[in-house]
Amino acid sequence: MGSVDFDQQVRLAAFDRLRELAAATSDGVLSRADLLAPVEVAGQRIPLVSPAGEGIWKPRQIAEPLSVLSSADPSAGVPRYGDQIVGGRQRYDYRAGGPDRWFNRALAGLAQSGTDLIYVVKLRAGEYTAAWPVRVVGNDPTGGFVLIDDSRTETVTSPEVATLGDRLLASEATARYTTAPRAVRLHQQAFRREVLRAYDQSCAMCRLRRPELVEAAHIIPDADERSRPVVTNGLALCVMHHAAFDRDLVGIDPRYQVHVRRDVLDEVDGPMLRHGLQGLAGQTLHLPQQRRDRPDPEFLDARFAQFRYAEPT
User: Mean pLDDT throughout 240-251?
Assistant: First the structure.
């Protein structure tokens, strides 16, 4: 059982290591070796995650967990441990064994202590991303989960691949714990990465292939309780077509055909409107090569009903 001072030293050293890794990565992705390379504090060598791959990592040298690991599988649509956003917080399910198992008690105890830790998401085999510091802000032993606030975070990300709308804003460090002025959702980062991978980094409507101008759009909007951060609920769209889709200026039916709202078709303007929006009418989406990554027709059908409702009568 470590002292409070030693615990803090370990966490600060771990956060410093993640900053170094973030500065070195070109795409926001860490390897398992990155996370297992130990930080050294007072002669003690401590990796950032469990060497055994366990989801809750409490090194023996310190009193409370240092990190939690979650697996995002946007293709399968089933994140490990059932993690999801609940009331603006990240739900993280207990490990098997119930609330009385020591690792679950240790995780739940963070809701009382307010100790910061690291949130790691496994994107796929050998690929991870991370956010820090996060904090456990709620515990539900009956439901078997805790709620994690990830609104005060630094993340492993890259400005080259960050979307225009999601670039992280820097803020001043307080006691070396840097906070961000907005929530950063790691599962949404995983969603973006996998959607753009599925569409080969290009817009599904116009085939623009500039990663800095292509974003991952949700078919069922993120704020909708039916929404899920899975590839089949996503489209890779350029900034303009993402905005047009979000505002129901264009819609996509379950057969992957693009529709343009009637008032947009009737409008007279310059070449951007003609080629950028009106010219999409009747076209078919450029789909991922892998069938498993293609938009779910049920998601498209639900969203297309919203587009039809938005059309002027």
Answer: 94
pTM of the model: 0.63
Concatenating the DSSP letter of every residue in the chain gives: ---HHHHHHHHHHHHHHHHHHHHH-SSS-B-HHHHHSPEEETTEEE-SS-TT--SEE--TTSSS--EEEEE--TTTT--GGG-EEETTEEEEEPPTT-TTSHHHHHHHHHHHH--EEEEEEEEETTEEEEEEEEEEEEEETTTTEEEEE-SS-EE---TTTS-TTTPPPP--EETTEE--SS---HHHHHHHHHHHHHTTTS-TTT----GGGEEEEESS-TTSTT---SGGGEEEEEHHHHHHHHTTSEEE-TT-BEEE-HHHHH----HHHHHHTGGGTT-B----SSGGGSPPHHHHHHHHHHHHHHS--
pLDDT digits (tens, 9 = 90+) for 141-198: 999 999 988 776 776 654 333 333 333 222 222 233 333 323 345 666 678 888 998 9
* CA dihedral over 12, 29, 57, 148, signed as positive or negative: positive
Rounded CA-CA distance 85/185 in Å is 9
- Domain boundaries defined on the chain: 4-192, 202-310
Mean pLDDT over 60-68 rounds to 95
Structure tokens belonging to residue 2: 């470590």
